[in-house]
Design brief:
Number of domains: 1
Distance between the termini: 22 Å
Number of strands: 13
Structural class: alpha/beta
Mean pLDDT: 78
Oligomer: single chain
Number of helices: 8
Shape: globular
Radius of gyration: 20 Å
Strand content: 15-25%
């Protein structure tokens, strides 16, 4: 079994003439072990939130702090003063015992950002509003997926999915952004991506594959945007649409890519 796997972020830089960066890294088993130790460290802290206790205010942590508050607690002056009473994650009422928690890379990142927001999200409570940039990135993912799998025009897919969001009152835009301006930039980036994709020549492409590995204390699950083979090596890709500047260092320390590498290197126990 290989001890490393190639991973990369394909970053679509949000600017009038969008740039596309391909930031590559190698993830080793040592990196994976470090990531698993982080999950094991957080689990005892997460369990009380799993098991229906009242959530006090948690200050946001600097590592993954967002520029735009989510509006779910008094950090943003919009505390919903809710409780998780009676809501227990991982509890099997029939067997009257706890199941192993299922952890995803995004959950760990969300917990590090704000434990309270993470816990409310587990109850199905959504944020009062959301940033338009990540939301448009989700739409770009859909467009890229349908282009790769179905061969359809990604710009048409983007229009189909992004157009109705003009009426979504929960979306929050930066001072320089509008629904239309984000759409123009995203479509320009997709236009540049099509010839780039053709040149890559990837094989055995799997889009949005779902994987899960069992450990003693938890399950780790993940859904990389793309997994393929290139020059007899496995390549794991994740798409990012952002106004921020990403560097190779950020890619090397990415928990998200490390988690996806773990699912590959540890030979997925199940796929769904």
């Amino acid at each position: 079994m290989s001890e490393t796997v190639r991973c990369a972020y394909c970053v679509f830089k949000k600017k009038p003439d969008p740039e596309i960066q391909l930031l590559k890294t190698q993830v080793s088993m040592a990196d994976v072990e470090g990531y698993l130790q982080k999950i094991r460290f957080y689990l005892p802290q997460m369990r009380p939130l799993f098991q229906g206790v009242e959530i006090e205010y948690f200050p946001r942590r600097t590592l993954y702090a967002f520029n735009t508050p989510c509006g779910m607690c008094d950090y943003a002056g919009l505390c919903i003063n809710g409780r998780l009473e009676g809501y227990i994650i991982g509890y099997d009422a029939t067997a009257k015992q706890y199941r192993k928690p299922i952890i995803s890379p995004s959950e760990i990142i969300k917990y590090e950002t704000c434990p309270r927001q993470w816990a409310y999200s587990k109850t199905g409570v959504d944020t009062p509003y959301r940033s338009a940039i990540p939301e448009s990135g989700t739409v770009m993912n859909i467009a890229i997926d349908e282009f790769i799998v179905l061969g359809v025009d990604p710009e048409e897919v983007f229009d189909r999915e992004w157009g109705p969001k003009a009426e979504d009152k929960r979306l929050r835009y930066n001072k320089t952004d509008t629904h239309a301006s984000i759409g123009r930039i995203a479509k320009a980036a997709l236009r540049k991506f099509v010839p780039m994709w053709d040149k890559w020549g990837l094989q055995d492409v799997v889009v949005q594959g779902k994987y899960m590995v069992e450990f003693d204390e938890f399950y780790l699950k993940g859904k990389p945007d793309l997994k393929a083979r290139k020059d007899d090596d496995t390549l794991i890709l994740d798409w990012k649409f952002s106004s921020s500047t990403y560097t190779d260092l950020w890619t090397r320390v990415s928990d998200q890519l490390t988690a996806y590498a773990a699912l590959h290197l540890l030979q997925p126990a199940m796929a769904a």
